Amino acid sequence: MVVKVYGPAYASPKRVIVCLIEKGIEFETVPVDLVKGEHRSPEYLKLQPFGSLPVIQDGDYTLYESRAIIRYYAEKYKSQGTDLLGNTIEERGLVEQWLEVEAHNYHPHIYNLTIQILFSSALGFLPDEKIIKESEEKLGKVLDVYEERLSKSKYLAGDSFSLADLSHLPFTQYLVGPMQKEYLIRERKHVSAWWDDISNRPSWKKVLEL
Ligand SMILES: N[C@@H](CCC(=O)N[C@@H](CS)C(=O)NCC(=O)O)C(=O)O
C-alpha cells in the first residue's frame, strides 16, 4: 500500500516525507495549494477538520498532525530503515523529550519568523519588525540550550540520529535558506556541526529535490 501525503510543498508535510524516506516507505504526494485555499475545501476538511497540512492516507487509515504521523511510522516500522526511536526505553524517553522541545520551545519562534518573513505578503500583511526581532532573540536563547546539549552528544537525544533531529529539518531549512538567518546556526559551533550533519543526510537532500 502506497502512503498518500497531502501538501508536499510545505514544511510540515516535509517532516513526514523525510521520515518516510528514512524508513524506506513508499509514498505518493497529493498537492494542496494553501494560497488558493484548497486546505479549506469541504473535501480536505473531511480529512483534516482544522485545515492544516499534512494528512496521510494509508489504505483506509487517515492521520493528521505531522509529529503524530512520524511517531506512528517510526514505531510501526521500527526495524525497517533507520531506527528513529532509540534502543532502550531511556533512549526513547530522550527522543520524546527533544521532540517536545522542538514542538514547544523551538517551533513557535521559528514559525513566527516563517510567517512574518516568508509568508506575510502572500497572507496580505506587512512583516512586523517587532515580532521578528523578539522571535529571533527567543530562538537564539533556545539555540543556546541546544549548543550546550550538542557539546555533550552528537545528536539531540544521544549518539544516534532520531525523530528529534529529523523534526527540526523543514523549518530550519527555511531559516538558513530563504529567511537568511543562518547566523543563528553558524554562530554556535556544535549547533552548526549538527545542522551540517542532519541536513546532509541523503533523505533530506532527496526531499529538497522533490
Ligand atoms: N501541528 C500541525 C501544524 C501544521 C502546519 O502548520 N501546517 C501549515 C503548513 S506548513 C499549514 O497547513 N498552514 C495552513 C493553515 O494552518 O491554515 C502539524 O504539525 O501537522
UniProtKB/TrEMBL annotation:
Any coiled-coil regions, as ranges: none
**Reactions performed catalytically:** RX + glutathione = an S-substituted glutathione + a halide anion + H(+)
Return the similarity comment: Belongs to the GST superfamily. Phi family.
Domain GST N-terminal, by residue range, is 1-81
Q: What is its EC number?
A: 2.5.1.18
Write out the entry's keywords from A to Z.
Cytoplasm, Detoxification, Transferase
> What top-tier enzyme class does this entry carry?
transferase
Give me the Gene Ontology terms describing cellular component. cytosol
Does the keyword Cytoplasm belong to this entry?
yes
Question: Where does the signal peptide begin and end?
Answer: none
| Pfam family membership, one | GST_C
- Give one GO term, molecular function aspect: glutathione binding
Q: Which domain of life is it from?
A: Eukaryota
Q: Where, subcellularly, is it found? A: Cytoplasm, Cytosol
Its GO biological process annotations read: glutathione metabolic process; toxin catabolic process
Q: Which residues form the GST C-terminal domain?
A: 88-210
Q: Which CDD domains match?
A: GST_C_Phi (cd03187), GST_N_Phi (cd03053)
Protein name in the entry: glutathione transferase
State the InterPro entries in the record.
Glutathione-S-Trfase_C-like, Glutathione-S-Trfase_C_sf, Glutathione_S-Trfase, Glutathione_S-Trfase_N, GST_C, GST_Phi_C, Thioredoxin-like_sf
